[in-house]
Amino acid sequence: MCSFVAISETQSPSETLKNLILQCFIVLPDEKFETAIKLKETINSLFGLYIAENNIQKCIEQLIKEKAITRPAGTNWTLTPDIKGLLQKRTDAANTLENKVKQQWFDEISKKIPNIPTEQAWSVLRKYLAKAFRRHGIQTAALLDPSVDVAPEYSESLSSLLNETVKDHLSHELHIDAKRAISGFLANICNYPERAEYISQLGDGAFNYFSLTVAPDVAENFRKKLNSLTLFFDTNVLIGILNLHVHPHVEVSNQLLTAIRKHKFPFTLRYHQATEAEILSTIEWYASKLRARTWSTTISRAAIKSPYLSGIELKYHQKNAEKGMDVESFLKPYKHIDILLKEKDILIHRTKEDRMYERATLLNEYIDFIKKKGMDKLYTVIDHDATVLDTVHQLRSNVASSLEAGALFITSDYNLYLFDWENSRRRGLQPCTVLPNHLFQILRPFIPSDRNFERSFAETFSLPEFRTIGSGASQACSKMLSILASLKDLPEDTAARLLSNDLLINNLRLAKNDKNFEEIVESALAGENALLLEEKVALAKQLELEREEKEAEKKKLDDQLRKNEAHLYEAQQSLIKKEEEIKIIESEVSKEKERLSEDVEHERRARERVEKQNKVYICLFATLVPIILILAFEFGIYWFEWNWLIHHPNSYGLQGAVDLCIFLMTFGFFFKKNRKYFWGGSLLPVILIILQLLGGPSSLNQSTPQKQEKILQKEKSLKNKTKITDSKNENVFAGSGLQPEPVNS
Fold first, then answer.
1. How open is the CA angle 286-289-293, to the nearest 5 degrees?
2. How far is residue 580's CA from residue 701's CA, in Å, rounded to a whole number?
3. CA angle at residue 656 from 651 to 660, to 5 degrees?
4. Which residue in 148, 240, 300, 621 could disulfide with 250, CB within 3.0 to 4.6 Å?
5. Roughly what angle, to the nearest 10 degrees, separates helices 379-395 and 356-373?
6. Share of the chain above pLDDT 70, in %
7. Radius of gyration, CA atoms only, the chain
8. CA distance 64 to 664
């Protein structure tokens, strides 16, 4: 970790990358390099290094500015003759040096150890040196110097690596001889200046390699020791992440998000509530422009060639040109940006704190800065920037500690970036805005190489093209020793945390002074201007090539337009006729509706009259039927001489109760709604009938003695009459010879 910090403080990775790009032209002189993608693939193939395309593009722009490479007549890139000659000379010298060192050693071991295969010994020596530089980095050259008093732990490490390498690549009987030969190579460095220079070049190769990529274990340790950090995204960055923007920062912003999620950085990703409103407003503004007319696939294919479209318009026309898409379908997903951003782990930050004074102060300072620079910016945009900037300031610590960054504001707005730097410096604070490409570069030490690091390093760092790129290893080694000395009394975990956070914070402070800051901003602006200029040239060429085709197509379009106008006129006339027919039909429908309404009303009234009449008839019928039934019942009693009922003491009461029951039952039959009440009420006369049938105490017991005597006399008279009747019957039956049946008295 100390080694990497020392390297990062010695040389910028972009300087190493620029030299590496130039070496591609030397290694493959016949290759035609036209794009950054092709150079990226070449670097990956030749040196086993994965470099982001935007970093390569940025270095190419700087090399063009430095006049190291040119692009004659807009063709492929080529090296300028001076640079080409210098690089070729360095590479040839490195190859010559390696061959000389190799031959000297072969002559030496052929005399002292004749039984060891020389080429095999050279291969083992290189593998051992690769392992030593991989483990001890830029310190290795000093550790291998026999004149340096090396600490015991380093000697043990180097000895262990030698034993391991010999054991892995040579047969057992050659182990002792190989160790003697390799130890002799290192012990005689002082006697062979070429050998010392070769080891020094290997140190430079390791330095250059480690300046471009990070070992997985080192990157992991750096990440583990990072403090948490809240990253706020500006509107322009989020629109790019949503794939609605065309800008050099779009690709690097997505790479940044991927790296943060993949390697689990302790970062919280947020966007301000004001940013959400600004995004929706921006999308709606461009949407209104797109909705203003209907876009055919043909028009969209022509539109995407225009350099004046916004990102949202361009993205729509690209999709419409591919498969046809209406504006609403294209915009529908972006009505829910909170869901789209949540899928990328970016959540909204809402604050209710009242910081009107602080915000107003910052807003006025920003407005003054805009006016001073002679720039034009909408007030709503300025207000949004000041609001988010104030929120980020609030979340950051005012303590000037390398361990507390707190929060950062990621933006693609160079003017906002410049304002924050100047304003923060005036207030004695650390700037809190950062460009996406700068942040990705800052996080490079925390992102490991995706390839097989061990093999890639062993195959690459000793290449002549790599060894001759630069010579910063000795300077970085001195810095490394200083860093180690400053941390030696601290616990290892504390030292690692300091290194990790200091590396991050120091890299965030990219500008050491005004001049350095101006260079950063100018570089960023120049990069974007170069990209725009390149696009302009490419579009001009494309327009030149397509002009003839458009001339031919124009005639076809004019003819088609005339035909379309004729068809349109016919369609308009037809539409007018259809509209008149529709009006007539609507009038007829309206009249029919009125007539139907009148018929319905008339029918309703007639139905009401019928219902009233039916109710009257039912009432009359319901009254007559029970009366008839009652009269029939009363008449039947006397017609059929129902003596029991006629002579019953409660005859009238029984007849009245039956009549009432008939009346209620009949009414219940005719009136269904009240049936339960009528039929329930009919139980009352039934109860009365039962009570009257049961009667009371015997009249004989309750009568006076005179009445009882009269009743007894009547009973005797009745018995006498019965006896007379019986005697008459006996006489009759005696004459006939029949026996009379006994009569029960």
1. 145
2. 106
3. 150
4. 240
5. 130
6. 84
7. 55
8. 116
> Distance between terminal CA atoms of the chain?
140
Kindly tell me the burial class for residue 508, based on how many C-beta atoms sit within 10 Å of its own C-beta (0-12, 13-18, 19 or more): middle
Reported as type and span, the H/E element at residue 231 is strand 229-233
pLDDT of residue 347: 92
d(CA 2, CA 137): 10
Q: How far apart are CA 165 and CA 678, in angstroms?
A: 116
CB contact at 8 A, 288 and 294: no
* Torsion over CA: 381, 386, 387, 392 (sign): positive
> What CATH topology corresponds to 221-446?
Rossmann fold (3.40.50)
- Which tokens belong to 43? 């670097």
CA distance 669 to 650: 29
Distance (Å, whole) CA 162 – CA 173: 16
Give the C-alpha separation, 134 to 454, whole Å. Answer: 8
Q: Cα angle vertex 420, ends 256, 344, to 5°? A: 25
Tell whether the torsion through CA atoms of 100, 90, 17 and 222 is positive or negative: positive
Q: Which of 441, 527, 525, 470 has its CA nearest to residue 64?
A: 527
User: What is the b/e burial string over 388-398, where b = at least 16 CB atoms within 10 angstroms of the residue's CB?
Assistant: bbbbbbebbee
Distance CA 200, CA 636 (A): 145
Please tell me what DSSP assigns to residue 42. Answer: H
Q: Which residue stretches of 640-682 are H helix?
A: 643-646, 651-670, 675-681
**Do the Cβ atoms of 58 and 13 come closer than 8 Å?**
no
Largest CA distance in the chain: 186
pTM of the model: 0.57
Single out the residue of 198, 248, 193, 186 nearest to residue 60, CA to CA.
248
Give CA–CA dist 71/34, Å, rounded: 9
Q: How far is CA 638 from the centre of its chain?
A: 100
Q: Are 232 and 408 contacting, i.e. CB atoms less than 8 angstroms apart?
A: yes
Residue 712: pLDDT over 70: no
Question: Tokens 């990775």 correspond to what residue?
Answer: 13
pLDDT for res 613: 85
Report the distance separating Cα 651 and Cα 644, nearest Å.
9
Which residues on adjacent β-strands are paired with residue 232? 270, 409
Centre a 10 Å sphere on the Cβ of residue 307 and count the other Cβ atoms it contains: 12
- Tokens of residue 19, six digits: 């030299």
d(C-alpha 274, C-alpha 277), whole Å: 5
Q: What is the pLDDT of residue 507?
A: 59
Determine whether 586 is exposed, middle or buried from the number of CB atoms within 10 Å of its CB (0-12, 13-18, 19+).
exposed
The encoded tokens of residue 637 equal 């009693």
Which phi and psi (to 5°) does residue 193 adopt?
-55, -35
Angstrom CA distances, 150 to 142, 153, 159, 254, 474, stand at 9, 8, 12, 46, 17
- Sign (positive or negative) of CA dihedral 573, 578, 580, 581: positive
Encode pLDDT of 125-145 as tens digits: 888 888 888 888 777 877 777
Residue 306 CB coordination number (10 Å)? 11
Distance of alpha carbon 482 from alpha carbon 476, whole angstroms? 10
Dihedral sign for Cα atoms in the order 191, 192, 195, 199: positive
CB 429 within 8 A of CB 241: no
Confirm if 523 and 64 have CB atoms less than 8 A apart.
no
Token output for 111: 């005399």
Cβ-proximal residues to 270 (8 Å cutoff; 6+ apart), any chain: 230, 231, 232, 233, 346, 347, 348, 349
Tens of pLDDT along 478-501?
777 777 777 777 787 777 777 776
Contact by Cβ (8 Å): 17, 466: no
